[in-house]
């Protein structure tokens, strides 16, 4: 048994292990090449988060999905670079919106420089992703454009909040379907499509990517509450402090919890959590609250749905790896 990738993904096949390791190394080279600029300042800013590392979950999914066709097809690695560049660009913008100070264990771009630099650097990375995907053909460009539209729509939905007659939890799942699920779906789709897999396989891996992406985001919601900065790579309770309604908070506010302790926690969440003492109290109470466990169960449910989608695929090491990714995502939220 060998290990691949940032999640300690177990793979029982040496050929697959070698292919994925080699592919991830090629992706890293591609990311550095795609973010180069003749302007030294842009070069440093655009490579800030690339060099900080990261989970590289999306490129990993692309490379594993490509195993259902020709994993060495020329478009596979560039497409993995495209999805990671797009993701990195959103992080620069997210940190501005969230006023985050830490990202991937280093100072966020807005903290190191300022908001304008962070936004413009994100735009630069979107432009570079577009340049790479243009070489993959018009179908790849269309797929990327549709995913980008969904991503932005999800961000807008999060910003404006649910309509008065809309269940906040249902609205939240619409948000993360766009913000996170769309790009994960493209990761699976690009890998299979550009490797020449059958259309039915491409469709399965696209749907799988959407579901595992949702589970991944739900696990992040849990980590924002339950982890420390060494584990998550960002400041604990960042979403909580900024009033971003992640799933544990939405469950708390769903009306199913009405003890005096529940009301105290809701009062804290409705108040000013820029106060460090109040933020620490709210974080501690939420860590011990059943709403956090409900969010963990939702994570497991989506991961299980992703696993079920793999049923029609042929049995092979790549299928086993995708099943193991489901376990890895659940483990993050455990």
From TrEMBL:
Gene3D superfamilies for the chain: Farnesyl Diphosphate Synthase
Pfam annotation, one family: polyprenyl_synt
Presence of the UniProt keyword Metal-binding in the record: yes
Keywords: Magnesium, Metal-binding, Transferase
Transmembrane parts of this sequence: none
Cofactor(s) named in the record: Mg(2+)
KW Membrane (keyword) present: no
Alphabetical list of PANTHER family matching this protein: ALL TRANS-POLYPRENYL-DIPHOSPHATE SYNTHASE PDSS1, GERANYLGERANYL PYROPHOSPHATE SYNTHASE
Family designation: Belongs to the FPP/GGPP synthase family.
Protein name: Polyprenyl synthetase family protein
Annotated source species: Streptantibioticus silvisoli
């Amino acid at each position: 048994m060998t290990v691949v990738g940032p999640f300690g993904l177990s793979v029982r096949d040496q050929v697959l292990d070698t292919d994925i390791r080699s592919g991830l190394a090629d992706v890293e080279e591609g990311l550095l090449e795609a973010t180069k600029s003749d302007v030294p300042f842009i070069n440093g800013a655009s490579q800030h988060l690339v060099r900080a590392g990261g989970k590289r979950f999306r490129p990993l999914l692309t490379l594993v999905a490509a195993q259902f066709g020709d994993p060495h097809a020329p478009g596979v690695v560039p497409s993995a670079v495209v999805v990671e560049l797009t993701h990195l660009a959103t992080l620069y913008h997210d940190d501005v919106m969230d006023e985050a100070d830490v990202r991937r264990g280093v100072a966020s771009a807005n903290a190191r420089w300022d908001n304008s630099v962070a936004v413009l650097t994100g735009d630069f990375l979107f432009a570079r992703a577009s340049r790479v995907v243009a070489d993959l053909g018009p179908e790849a460009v269309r797929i990327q454009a549709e995913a980008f539209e969904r991503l932005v729509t999800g961000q807008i939905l999060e910003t404006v909040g649910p309509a008065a007659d809309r269940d906040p939890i249902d609205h939240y799942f619409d948000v993360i379907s766009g913000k996170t699920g769309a790009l994960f779906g493209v990761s699976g789709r690009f890998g299979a499509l550009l490797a020449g897999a059958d259309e039915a396989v491409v469709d399965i891996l696209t749907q799988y990517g959407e579901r595992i992406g949702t589970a991944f985001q739900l696990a992040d919601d849990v980590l924002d509450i339950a982890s420390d900065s060494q584990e998550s790579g960002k400041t604990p309770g960042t979403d909580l402090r900024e009033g971003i309604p992640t799933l544990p908070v939405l469950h708390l506010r769903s009306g199913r919890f009405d003890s005096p302790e529940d009301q105290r926690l809701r009062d804290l969440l409705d108040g000013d959590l820029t106060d460090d003492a109040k933020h620490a109290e709210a974080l501690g109470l939420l860590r011990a609250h059943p709403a956090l466990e409900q969010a963990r169960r939702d994570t497991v449910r989506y991961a299980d749905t992703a696993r079920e989608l793999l049923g029609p695929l042929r049995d092979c090491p790549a299928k086993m790896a995708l099943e193991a990714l489901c376990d890895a995502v659940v483990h993050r939220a455990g």
